[in-house]
Amino acid sequence: MVQKSNKPPSAAKMDAPAAPKRRGRPRAYEPDVALGRALDLFRRDGFSATSLDDLSAATGMNRPSLYGAFGDKRELYIKSYQRYRDDARTAMVDIFRSEAPLRERLKRIYAIALDIYTEGESPRGCFTVMTAASEAVSDPAIRGMVLEGFVELDKAFATCFGIAKERGELPASTDATVLAHLASATIHTVAIRARAQVPRKELEAIVKGALDVICGAK
User: What are φ and ψ of residue 100, in 5° steps?
Assistant: First the structure.
């Protein structure tokens, strides 16, 4: 006959707290990475031509996970566009604020723009010009973002030219607003041509021509 032990359970066993239970499944994706992949897809194919199946394949997330993380397809598009704008602003803001001579600042700004527009085996141009502007026709929220981006870029260039006037780099009679529109238009035209796979050297020649007009031929 086996006798039952009367020994009390050890204090270690009595006092040890129960291991916390894990709730739910661990998140198997990185939101920033997934958003970046969606951004690449929307830049390449636009809103209408990009299906939820395309987005699921690109991000590695199924439809319910996509919706839970980012909302519907339109919300994901808007988040992708905002990410694109934030990244572009971060890449250029310090150059706009730098103390370098005007021509040097503009050259660096356009060089960064060309880097963005021509990256990869199949250049995609600018998200704003190539896809968001089309969606802006029927979507007020996207239209507001596009217009806000245009105004922000114009103001950044106008501030540059205003400072250049004060330094004597531009004539006192210079209209900074008009020059800003010209500088922004140059950004837009190289974006369109980059999407059409115009060689970078030709795009750089366009930029040089714009710099000669704005700053004076050299």
Answer: -65, 155
In this structure, are residues 58 and 38 in contact, taking their beta carbons and an 8 Å threshold?
yes
Residue owning tokens 């939820």: 52
Asked if residues 122 and 196 have their Cβ atoms less than 8 Å apart, the reply is no
In degrees and rounded to multiples of 5, residue 206 shows phi and psi of -65, -45
| Distances, alpha carbon 124 to alpha carbons 17, 25, 107, 146, 152, in Å | 56, 36, 21, 17, 22
Burial of 106-132, coded b for 16+ CB within 10 Å and e otherwise, reads bbbbbeebbebbbeeeebbbbbbbbbb
What domains lie within the chain, and their CATH numbers? 80-215 (1.10.357.10)
**Band of the pLDDT at 11, cuts 50, 70, 90?**
very low
Which pTM was predicted? 0.82
**What do you get for the CA distance between the two ends of the chain, in Å?**
107
Amino acid identity at 93: V
Per-residue model confidence as pLDDT tens digits over 57-104: 999 999 999 999 999 999 999 999 999 999 999 999 999 999 899 999
190, two tokens: 């190289």
* Percent of the chain clearing pLDDT 70 (strictly above): 86
Instruction: Give pLDDT, residue 25.
Output: 44
CA–CA distances in Å: residue 143 to residues 42, 129, 134, 140, 185: 16, 12, 9, 5, 18
Residues in the chain: 218
Check residue 122 and give its pLDDT. 77
Q: Are 107 and 176 in contact (CB under 8 A)?
A: no
